[in-house]
């Protein structure tokens, strides 16, 4: 078998590698400002992960999306550089997080609103790649896991995508009830139960 390489790509090699180790080239990174860059990075090295929280009182499974970029080939310092660039260029909020593999750090988006912003930014490009919908469509991703969730929590559960808004929206009635129960020495757990919330 023979795998020829175009001279163009041979010339690019030193921009991406030093002693056959992947590197962040700051000069090159500064030119990566188009959403195609973010789309390529995410669809190649990224993952849409969903964690779950079950509220027995409301029989609801809340699905919490997050995004991980498996940038384990980059050092902690390089990941910080990449996060700063992505956050400044695309208004994301990536944070550097530890991991046992590679150079022991990668990038994460932890809030539903941040995940939705990234997916919205890449949508004009990613919609042309339907095979990647499990990475670009939160609802589709959760749909693939519904049977598993129903086996684990029960057939009649309600499945909802969590959002930062849900956590902040207390009615005036709930606020008044929290104050009253707190004054009557109820524990936080008991107050949550009274409100039908999980915390």
Could you explain how this protein is built, in words?
With 199 residues, the chain is an alpha+beta fold. It has 2 domains: 7-163, Roll (Endonuclease I-creI), CATH 3.10.28.10; 169-199. It is 49% helix and 19% strand. The chain has 11 helices and 7 strands. The protein has helices at residues 7-16, 26-29, 35-45, 76-90, 112-126, 133-136, 138-143, 146-153, 164-168, 172-183, 188-195, and strands at 17-18, 21-22, 46-55, 60-69, 95-98, 105-109, 158-161. Strands 3, 4, 5, 6 and 7 form a 5-stranded mixed β-sheet that branches. A two-stranded antiparallel ribbon has the order 1-2. A hairpin with a 4-residue loop joins strand 3 (46-55) and strand 4 (60-69). Helix 3 packs across helix 5 (112-126). The radius of gyration is 22 Å and the shape is elongated. The termini are far apart. The model has no long low-confidence stretch (mean pLDDT 90).
Describe the structure using short key phrases:
Endonuclease I-creI, 199 residues, 11 helices, 49% helix, two-stranded antiparallel sheet, 5-stranded mixed sheet, 2 domains
Question: What are the SSEs and their pairings?
Answer:
Layout: H1 7-16, E1 17-18, E2 21-22, H2 26-29, H3 35-45, E3 46-55, E4 60-69, H4 76-90, E5 95-98, E6 105-109, H5 112-126, H6 133-136, H7 138-143, H8 146-153, E7 158-161, H9 164-168, H10 172-183, H11 188-195
Parallel strand pairs: 4-7
Antiparallel strand pairs: 1-2, 3-4, 4-6, 5-6
């Amino acid at each position: 078998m023979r795998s020829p390489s175009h001279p163009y790509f041979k010339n690019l090699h030193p921009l991406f590698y030093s002693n056959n180790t992947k590197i962040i080239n700051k000069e090159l990174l500064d030119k990566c400002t188009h959403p195609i860059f973010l789309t390529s990075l995410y669809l190649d090295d990224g993952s849409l992960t969903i964690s779950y929280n079950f509220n027995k009182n409301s029989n609801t499974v809340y699905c919490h999306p997050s995004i991980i970029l498996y940038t384990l080939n980059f050092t902690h310092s390089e990941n910080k550089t990449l996060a700063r660039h992505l956050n400044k260029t695309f208004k994301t909020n990536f944070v550097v997080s530890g991991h046992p593999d590679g150079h022991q750090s990668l990038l994460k988006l932890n809030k539903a609103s941040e995940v939705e912003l990234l997916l919205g930014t890449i949508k004009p490009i990613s919609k042309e790649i339907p095979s990647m919908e499990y990475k670009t469509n939160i609802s589709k991703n959760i749909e693939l896991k519904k049977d598993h969730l129903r086996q684990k929590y029960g057939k009649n559960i309600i499945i909802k995508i969590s959002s930062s808004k849900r956590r902040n929206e207390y009615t005036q009635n709930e606020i008044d009830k929290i104050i009253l129960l707190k004054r009557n020495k109820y524990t936080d757990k008991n107050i949550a139960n009274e409100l039908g919330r999980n915390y």
